[in-house]
Amino acid sequence: MASTQGLSKHVLAAGWLATALAISGCSQMHTKPKVVSTPPHQEAPIAPPAPPPAETDDAPDMPISAIIKSQLQVGRYEDGEKSLKHYLKQHPDDRLAQNLLRQLTVDPQQALGASSRNYTVQSGDSYSTLAARFLGDGTQFLILARYNNAANPSMLRAGQVLHVPASAKNAPDKALSHVSPAVQAKRLQDESLALLGQGHRDDAVSRYDQALSLDPTLKPTNGDAAGLRTQVLNNYHQRAIVLYRDQKLDQAIALWDHVLAIDPGYEAATVYRTRALELKHRLKQL
To answer: Is the domain of 138 the same as that of 203?
Structure first.
């Protein structure tokens, strides 16, 4: 009986083993191998060639007044021409810029005529005032300067001999060298007002400054002239303050003296001048 039970156990064990092997075999038969798909090779797209760099205008953005003051009036003609061309790209209808560029590019002898007469520069003259007198337009200073081969139009000395076109409408006044500073100052005041009317405020202030240097007692003819006079006085005062802070007291005091000679009621000049005198006195005691 015991042997029969042992045999039965062996048979069961063998059956379980066979079943396990069968299951394992079926499992292996029905498991498909994983297929790893490789995407087809794709070449990286070729970037189109970069466009050539656009031509750039290396002239800085400058207002027309700055072009005149920092380039044309000091003889930087090449820089001025570049700046004017750059400016005209943005303001193609600006007549002043067109006029100045034409003055830079035309032949002065052909434009004004080869025949000329001499003129002796007087105190207070500038190419702008002379252009206004002889050519009828102060903005024609550039071509008049080039007509005289001037390397720096801002530099004119009393006694210097210039050439003015013989065809100029306003012939030189023989008595011009004998006119009083007051008469010259009034003429400069008129020219400054003309420049202001053309929109050239910086030039107008500079011209009025020349007028007041000739005649500190010059009275404004209208409200615009009074405004230019005030601007000139304010400029003097600010320059004097800078000199005062740098302890250049004599120069500062001289400027305030000039301000008060023009306008005795300029209170700020009176106050600062007193301070400068006191500081000067204290420094002498050290």
So the answer is: no
Q: Name the pairing type of β-strands 161-165 and 116-120.
A: antiparallel
* Domain ranges, residue 95: 60-105
Diameter of the chain measured on Cα atoms = 164
- Rounded distance, CA 83 to CA 94, Å? 13
- CA pair distance 106, 81, nearest whole angstrom: 12
Q: CA–CA separation, 56 vs 188, rounded Å?
A: 42
Based on the structure, what is the number of domains in the chain? 3
Q: Are residues 194 and 232 in the same domain?
A: yes
> What are 171-190's pLDDT values in tens digits?
444 333 445 778 878 888 88
pTM attached to this predicted model? 0.46
Report how far Cα 240 is from the mean position of its chain's Cα atoms. 25
Locate 166 and state its tokens.
């013989």
User: Would you say 66 and 79 are in contact if contact means Cβ atoms under 8 Å apart?
Assistant: no
Domain membership of residue 35 (yes or no) is no
- Residues 262/268, Cβ–Cβ less than 8 Å: no
Greater pLDDT, 206 or 231: 231
State which H helix or E strand residue 140 sits in.
none
Domain check: are 215 and 261 in the same one? yes
Same domain, 85 and 64: yes
